[in-house]
Amino acid sequence: MIRVVVVDDEPMVCAHLRTILGSAADIEVVAQAQDGAEAVEAVVRHRPRVVLMDLRMPGVDGLTAIERIAKLPEPPAVVALTTFDADTYVIRALRAGAAGFLVKSTPPEDLIGLVRVAADGHTVLSPEAAQRLVAMSADGRRRGDDARRKTDGLTERETDVLACLGEGLSNADIAARLHLAEATVKSYVSRMLVKLDCANRTQAGLLAHEAGLVKR
């Protein structure tokens, strides 16, 4: 069972998400919260695998909550919720440790599938969305230079794996493309996250875009 916490300051949004997710046999909404402080408390109390986090809330906002949750032992995957598909808040959320983002207008059947993707530890972010987010970043050129300096230290195979992360591929998909064992890919990803100082696969994927490793 995939345990989920829903966070939004609009009770109707929480109720809507709870109804959609509750229709899936393998998903359980274990709590909802209306600000970031409540969200952190709910995560500590209920130990969910996924958190759907609104970014703009009064009091403790979603960005602060994501940063706090990322510091917890074995943190859940936090997926940012936004009204827009390209938003400067989303960029900050991803760099704070979010596993991806969803627009609130995501169709119900897609929402359920994407929650499952997040629960499996994969990126909830399309390559097209990543490209838009990188393009709209105000300090994109500087970040591009920084990203290239970081990735210059990778081996050729590590660079190949990182580019695949930028495309949002799973370990199984990367293994098939690069003709590697899935366990080998997992090992590559774990080492790269440490080497590149990335909190998760999503941050590594964005870094791949910033370094120009993903074909457009």
TrEMBL record:
Query: The Response regulatory domain covers which part of the protein?
Result: 3-119
InterPro entries for the chain? CheY-like_superfamily (IPR011006), NreC/VraR/RcsB-like_REC (IPR058245), Sig_transdc_resp-reg_C-effctor (IPR016032), Sig_transdc_resp-reg_receiver (IPR001789), Tscrpt_reg_LuxR_C (IPR000792), WalR-like (IPR039420)
Domain HTH luxR-type as annotated: residue spans: 147-212
GO process annotations (BP): phosphorelay signal transduction system; regulation of DNA-templated transcription
Q: Which SUPFAM superfamilies match?
A: C-terminal effector domain of the bipartite response regulators, CheY-like
| Superkingdom of origin | Bacteria
Q: Which GO terms describe its molecular function?
A: DNA binding
Which PROSITE patterns would you find in this protein's record?
HTH_LUXR_1 (PS00622), HTH_LUXR_2 (PS50043), RESPONSE_REGULATORY (PS50110)
List of residues that carry 4-aspartylphosphate: D54
Sorted alphabetically, which keywords does the UniProt record give? DNA-binding, Phosphoprotein, Transcription, Transcription regulation
What name appears for this protein in its UniProt entry?
DNA-binding response regulator
Provenance organism: Amycolatopsis azurea DSM 43854
